[in-house]
Write a structure and sequence with these properties.
The complex is a heterodimer. Chain A has 8 helices and 8 strands; from the N terminus they run βαβαβαβαββααβαβα. By secondary structure, chain A is an alpha/beta fold. The chains are: A alpha/beta, B alpha+beta. Chain A: It comes from Thermodesulfovibrio aggregans.
């Protein structure tokens, strides 16, 4: 026999993402979903950002990786609570993984929770996890054609951090083109040029962040 | 895209629905996929056929109906439709990117054949 249905396939994820959002709101924690391709500098950015703001706000981190605990160990050295999720192959974090990881964190004692998503320019942008804001990093070593090749992440993110600008004289990369194409896809996107190596631009980013999460 | 996750979710939904209503097996599942979702239908089929093996949907056929992208331009007011796999939404009439999507983001199960 035939059975008619009208079920959205990603409803389960979206529903859990909404529950996460409520849980974070009740705990008074602002949640940032940090996304990029592998090696763009997510963990380095977290190290710089957390060092700059941890005296002013209480920070927690959920680290997502396919396997391994390297990143979580780096964050732990900063003295903030961190939970590692290993997706064992999955290319993104979903709402359910976040719900489980969040239980391991002292949410009520936190002001900001960073979720470092799996390194991938495609899938993480497609799964809500209950975040307040999506932030992405693109490093200039990846090339200036990425916004138009991977538009969704640029369209979904509130902030674009263009990283590794200390290398700009060594590379044939047009940073203005990255900015122009990102703004073309998302006129509201806030852009910072940074270098996690030299610290350039980190102050501007963390000042903006502190203003926008409080 | 993440077709394996989507195939996993849709199998979950279909199997749970059957368990709730006492059906024993699934012969077919119909889904609609908007062309703006970024879902590759071949990859979805492949993932479905791998994941269904140990479930009551092991003999099920996945029937995928693709829906075109439809939108209305906020600048010139014209409606448009495209069968391309759109990701960037541009009004074909005036080139504006200020566009409201009317359809194309669908990812729904619409029907199952069960016994």
């Amino acid at each position: 026999m035939k059975v008619k249905l009208t079920t959205k396939i990603l409803d389960a994820n979206d529903r859990i993402a909404e529950e996460n959002k409520r849980m974070f709101k009740d705990a008074g924690v602002y949640v940032i979903n940090l996304m990029s391709s592998p090696g763009a500098g997510k963990t380095s950015l977290l190290e710089k950002t957390i060092s700059a703001i941890k005296d002013k706000v209480k920070v927690g981190v959920i680290e997502g990786d396919i396997t391994g605990t390297n990143d979580a160990e780096r964050i732990e050295r900063l003295g903030v609570p961190v939970v590692q999720i290993n997706t064992e192959g999955a290319c993104h974090l979903d709402a359910n993984m976040i719900a489980e990881a969040a239980r391991e964190l002292p949410l009520k004692d936190l002001d900001v929770l960073f979720i470092e998503n799996v390194g991938n320019l495609v899938c993480p942008a497609e799964f809500k996890v209950g975040e307040d804001m999506k932030v992405m990093i693109l490093s200039i070593t990846e090339g200036d054609d990425k916004p138009l090749k991977y538009p969704l992440m640029f369209q979904e993110s509130s902030v674009l951090l263009i990283n590794k600008i200390d290398l700009k004289d060594l590379l044939d990369v047009n940073i203005e083109k990255i900015k122009k194409d990102a703004q073309f896809l998302n006129p509201k996107i806030k852009i910072f040029e940074i270098s996690c190596k030299t610290g350039q631009g980190i102050n501007e980013w963390t000042s903006w962040l502190l203003t926008n999460i409080s | 895209m993440h077709e394996a996750s989507i195939a996993y979710e849709l199998l979950n939904i279909a199997v749970n629905e059957c368990h709730k209503n006492g059906y024993k097996s699934i012969d077919s599942i119909k889904v609609v996929v908007g062309r703006a979702t970024g879902v590759m239908t071949d990859a979805l089929l492949f993932a479905f056929n791998v994941l269904k093996k140990d479930t009551i949907a092991k003999n099920a056929k996945l029937i995928i109906e693709e829906l075109p992208v439809r939108g209305v331009c906020k600048d010139c007011g014209k409606e448009f439709e495209s069968n391309e796999n759109y990701i960037i939404f541009e009004c074909p009439n005036c080139g504006s990117f200020s566009v409201n999507l009317l359809s194309g983001k669908e990812l729904n199960i619409t029907e199952m054949e069960v016994s």
